[in-house]
Amino acid sequence: MIDLRSDTVTKPTPEMLHAMMNAEVGDDVYKEDPTVNELERRVAELFGTDEALFFPTGSMANQAAIKMHTQPGEQLICDKYAHVYNYEGGGVSFNSGVSCKLLDGDRGMITAAQVEEAINPPDFYHSPLTTLVCVENTTNKGGGACYEMSTFHEIKEVCEKHDLGYHLDGARLFNAIVAKNQDPKEYGTLFDTISICFSKGLGIPLGTVLTGKSELMKKAMRVRKVLGGGMRQVGFIAAAGIYALDHHIDRLAEDHKRAIELGNYLSQLSYVKKVEPVETNIVIFKVNDEQAVMNYCDKNDLIISNMGQGKLRLVTHLDYTQELHEQALQLFKNFS
Ligand SMILES: *Cc1c(COP(=O)(O)O)cnc(C)c1O
Predict the structure, then answer these.
(1) 8 CA: nearest ligand 1 atom
(2) What is the pTM of this model?
(3) With 97 labelled, which of 4, 108, 130, 253 sits at a CA distance of 20 to 30 A?
(4) Is residue 329 in some structural domain?
(5) What is the arithmetic mean of pLDDT over 237-250?
(6) For the CA atoms of 237, 238, 242, 244, what is the dihedral angle to 10 degrees?
(7) Closest by alpha carbon to 171, among 144, 189, 133, 132?
(8) Is 7 a member of any domain?
(9) Could you identify the atom of ligand 1 that is nearest to the CA of residue 62?
């Protein structure tokens, strides 16, 4: 079986399990779990941020951040592909009573000019007050695309000028950092809040860290509690996170290499109409008859995602080895 649906399908390695089994734990709702405290300290140190807090999921971390930044009735700005808008169950309106102004970006990426144009005039009381900008790096629905750092700086200027919060959904931020050889501390200076999933490319069973400025992060414990995300001896999981910080970041380059190889390979096959640019570990390609390709993959124990409208998606990850990669290439070649 080759599972290329998502980088969330990975299982802990024996070494990661060993680190988990040997974790020193305590009750994290009392902030007494030394391993969780250490993971949070490590993330804040890495990004040069004031504070960090461990959440069970990326959706909860994003939703908490949006809650911390906004008041009901306000509006946030994001791309039309944004995870916070498309894949968090309508949580923006449910949890925060906030609406989304959607921008038509490029592969999930927006520009400072688009943001500036989308801000409602604050004294025009008919429209919702714009208070937050959410960006995503890498973009999920945008096919793993990475922003240029300069774009983030330009958007930050707009946020500062108009007094808007600036949140980064960094579910796959380490993929961007590795692909573009960036400094995590630059992200720490740019954003008010950043969420980073450990359950994607880093390969831990669950968990996301939200990090940022103390003026906002001081609300994070209460909001997490409200959302039901206060966990107890969760150091067993945080230990996997610390292990991943030490061992699973640099290797993301392997996932990117295999994704780029898959993209190049697919672009030469006659049944593939188009392959979106591959920058990290996500490959989106278009075919004429998606159902035929899906059925073929299914029969051959190759699991991929159908995004609809002829678009199929592959995501490379920790458990997608070189051996499986070679088998997958062969399977794609044999389809006719
Ligand atoms: C996976 C993901 C999240 C978090 O999703 P969960 O399923 O809650 O872990 C958030 N943003 C993006 C862009 C993602 O890809």
Answers:
(1) 1
(2) 0.97
(3) 108
(4) yes
(5) 98
(6) 40
(7) 144
(8) no
(9) 10
